Amino acid sequence: MVSNGGPRLSVKLSVVAVFSALIALSTVLSIPLPQPLGELTWAPPIYLALSVLAGSEVGFWSTGIGSFIGESLNIPLKGFPPIYALGIVWARAPEALIVGWARKKSRRTLVAAMVLATLFETLAFFFPDWLFYSKGLFYGSQNEGLVPGFWAASFDLLTMVDLVFIPAALLIIQRARPEFTRLGFA
């Protein structure tokens, strides 16, 4: 199953399919939060760990596809605005690239990359939302203007709470590494 060049394409595609489904499920099965926040999902430790175990490419596609499917399901299930499905891909998929970069570096560098990835996700939500709220594009026009838009978008900064998932991601990495190594992900 393993060649010198890493896992076969079929193995990579299988991992993307399985983990996309797991990320989608962990996005739908979430802790509801008051609007405009929406939810706290269980996906971060999964895609952070996957980006280390399987690399940037597999992590990127699994995170992007799974997040899109999960948020697309949340649109009719939870009444989320349709833009959430695109916004979560914009915010989450690059996290896999950031963490995947550090996958073979020291533990300290890996944790720093996870923190940086979470910061990226937070700012990727914050800046577009600030613009959207400032222009009155979300939840009516009561927040029009840069200052009211800033305050409305500032709730996105609470996305930094995802930092609590880093220890869980590290535990997943420790426990799952032998299986991913067996599959050819070094």
In short:
The chain has 186 residues and is mainly alpha-helical.
Can you describe what's shown?
- It is a single chain.
- This protein is mostly helical.
- It has a domain at 2-117 and 165-178: Orthogonal Bundle (Arp2/3 complex 21 kDa subunit ARPC3).
- The protein is 67% helix and 4% strand.
- It contains 7 helices and 4 strands; from the N terminus they run ββαββαααααα.
- The chain has helices spanning 9-28, 44-53, 56-78, 83-101, 107-134, 146-153, 166-182; strands at residues 2-3, 6-7, 31-32, 39-40.
- The strands form 2 sheets. A two-stranded antiparallel ribbon has the order 1-2. Strands 3-4 form a two-stranded antiparallel sheet.
- Helix 2 (44-53) packs parallel to helix 4 (83-101).
- The protein starts with a strand and ends with a helix.
- The mean pLDDT is 91.
Please give the number of β-strands.
Answer: 4
Order of helices and strands: EEHEEHHHHHH
| CATH class placement of the domain at 2-117 and 165-178 | Mainly Alpha
Rounded mean pLDDT score: 91
Biggest sheet strand order reads 1-2
CATH fold descriptor of the domain at 2-117 and 165-178: Arp2/3 complex 21 kDa subunit ARPC3
Largest sheet: 2 strands, antiparallel
Question: What gap, in angstroms, lies between the N and C termini?
Answer: 13 Å
Oligomer, anyone?
single chain
- Please, how many helices? 7
Shape: globular
